[in-house]
Amino acid sequence: MTCRLRELIRAVRACKTAAEEREVIAKESAAIRSAFKDEDNQYRHRNVAKMLFMHMLGYPTHFGQMECIKLIAAPRFPEKRIGYLGLMLLLDENVEVLMLITNSLKSDFENTNQYISGLALTALGNIASADIARDLSSEIEKMMGNANGYLRKKACLCAVRLVRKCPEMCEGLFPHLQSLLQDRSHGVLIGGLTLIQEICTLYPRAVSKLQPLVPVLVRMLKNLVLSGFSPEYDVCGITDPFLQVKLLRVMRMLAADREDAAEQMSDILAQVATNTESTKNAGNAVLYECVLTMMGIPCEAGLRVLGVNILGRFLMNRDNNIRYVALNTLAKVAPIDATSVQRHRNTIVDCLRDNDISIRRRALDLIALLCTDQNIRVLAKEMLNYLTVSDPEFEPDLTEKLCGLVAKWAPSRKWHVDTMVRVLIIAGNSVPPSVLPTLVQLISSAPELQIYAVHKFFHAIMQDRTKPVLLQVAVWCIGEFGELLSVAPPGDGGDPLPTDGQVIDLVAELLAHENPTLKGYCLNALVKLSTRLAHGVDRIKGLIAQHKGSVSLDLQQRAVEYHNLFKFDEIRRSVVETLPTNEDFEEEGAAEGGAAAERRQRQNLLDDEEDTAVAPVTQKQQTRPQAVQHSTASTSSSSSIMDDLLGLSVPAATARSPAPQLSAMDLLSGLTVTPGTSGTGFMQTVPLVPDASSASASQAIQVYDSDGVRISFVCAKDPNDHFSATITATYANFGSASISNFVVQAAVPKTAKVTLSPATGTSLSASGGNFITQVMRVSNTIVDQKPLAMRMKISYTAAGGPITKTHDVTNFPPGI
């Protein structure tokens, strides 16, 4: 004999261990199995109820599935109620025995007891499979027209399940939707609207067929908003907010891309937004759904502003749930109507001080969407102020977001550097590593900013040496531009400048830091300072030598190689020269983000307008090594390294024919030469100084003169192609030593293209004994905006060994 359900619950609760509980359940399960064997069991419904309790505890109850089906077929309501409950909990749509209840469901649909029919509709709406949905679809459509409102509501919700399983059934439900929306029962209306919403989601083509229902929906919502007090449907002073929310959702779906439908809704949306009380949560729910509808349809701008103002009021609510919803919604609205959201910027920034971290994070995301080059100064200042008091949990998120916004929207390079120094000082331990290459690129590409930046970082780390990223950027800057520390920055108050010894002392102190990455930066800085500072070379050499036995393989290798460089001063100076920026000369085919290009263009324009950002070129700057003074300086390294550093896109030259040996007299007389391969090619006249007759067609310029090597270009416009030109390059050597393996490679910006023909030779005699010519075909797509720019890489072998240099050609005549 099994016990009662209450007794089983009491026995389980009395168990002190899991083993005791398992023993009680096992004993009762055995008793239930024995009882199920008796076909004439009057306590079957009680045993199934106990089995449902075991199921909730997590014990296996599959042995009772058939008993649930037997209870459904029972004549009385108590047995059916437990049977349908067990059916929905113990079975799912994939169980094969579920097909056995199809006839029982049909029978219960026609039962005179509305609650039995309701049980059948509820069960079908929860576990119906696709096959059962097709078999009983006609029965559900019939129930949707039942005279009983309770059953009509149940049938609508059951139809939602059928539509999910069989979307093709939507067509058969269209005739019933109009009548459902005319029902006086709010329960039936909510059920019908839920069904319409599901049909629009699963069957997008149905939206156009359901759009004629828009006037009906507008009228229903208007009646709800303007109706008086109704005790039956009143919730906190709002007439049936559940129905209002459902109406607004369906209206949004039907008018998402229809201006005529949106125009019909404008008046009622404004009334809902104006008349709904916002002091209660029910009213806030309606207002929130109204705002979503305003933003989801092509409505008037004034209506959108009204919706954004409602969200602004939500931000001042004391309930964090409402504030979070407002921030989340404003984040969706900001890309559509940023101007309206900007009016609430101060309130949004205040949310950064909220105690709830979820509110702070959503506010931070929204601030990022509102940030522009017009308000970045204000927003960055507010975020920096909060960063000083931010809790450790939120500091990394705020720092990363602030660094990204500053890099994207900085109005000038000087402001960018100032702001990032403050960020590094305040929250340097939370700064992402990606900030370092961004600052390095910024400073290296702005020669007018380098004096200011190196002094700024030098003084920053003199005050704070606990932030790793700040130290890394500062040490790089000191190593790259250390000689500029002896030059007073613009606007300096007359403070004493650091001496060479003080600079080395600082780097030596940081070299003792425990961070191996920072030590590597310090070693790099020291070897660079050995060529940039006038004093302290021997001390630098000793500091580097101390790390030749470092336990870190990377530091040991750096120290050994750098120490060996001191044996070859010329090579060391060439190796540690400041590399030119490759900002404007990128590898052909490389893609740059539109936002980055736009930011750079905007930044350059603003830099020109900011008086304090540009430092005058002092005498000290003019005495810097050529590679440090100009971004177009030449460098000496291996060919493969230079290709990687410069990002050159160099056309491959074909096999060259032997060069004709020409005298200096030939060079001056402008002889006709024949470039090409294997004796074939074309005749090209190379006048170094064109006569008056040819001045309109070609122009000669000298583009390079260093160490006796001279290069001149003769530029001739293509008469048949406005964007194309032919450049004939002439290479000569007026030095005292002959040159061999002479090769010139060229790269142009992405807006242009260059093709090099084979040169007429690779050897240049001393004192101008001969010359080499090479024809270049260029195409400049922005010829009407600015002339061509070109970067050359010049490689040759002279008496001292292989030499590689780079040079930028920026004096092309207009129209090339």
General description of the model:
With 816 residues, the chain is an alpha+beta fold. Among the domains are: 397-603, Leucine-rich Repeat Variant (Alpha Horseshoe); 664-809, Immunoglobulin-like, CATH 2.60.40.1230. The protein has 37 helices and 14 strands. The strands form five sheets. Strands 7-8-9-12-11 form a five-stranded antiparallel β-sheet, with no helix packed on it. α4 packs antiparallel against α5 (77-90), α13 runs parallel beside α15 (259-275) and α24 (413-427) packs parallel to α26.
Name its key features:
Leucine-rich Repeat Variant; single chain; Immunoglobulin-like; three-stranded antiparallel β-sheet; alpha+beta; 816 residues
> CATH class of one domain, anyone?
Mainly Alpha
Radius of gyration equals 41 Å
CATH architecture of one domain: Alpha Horseshoe
Unreliable residue stretches: 583-696
Number of strands: 14
- Biggest β-sheet: strands ordered side by side in the sheet: 7-8-9-12-11
Distance between the first and last residues' Cα:
104 Å
How many helical stretches? 37
Globular, elongated, flat, extended or rod-shaped: what is the shape?
elongated
Q: Approximately what portion of the residues adopt beta-strand conformation? A: 5-15%
Specify the helix fraction band: 40-55%
Biggest beta-sheet profile: 5 strands, antiparallel
Average residue-wise pLDDT: 82
CATH topology group of one domain: Leucine-rich Repeat Variant
Find the structural class using helix and strand composition: alpha+beta
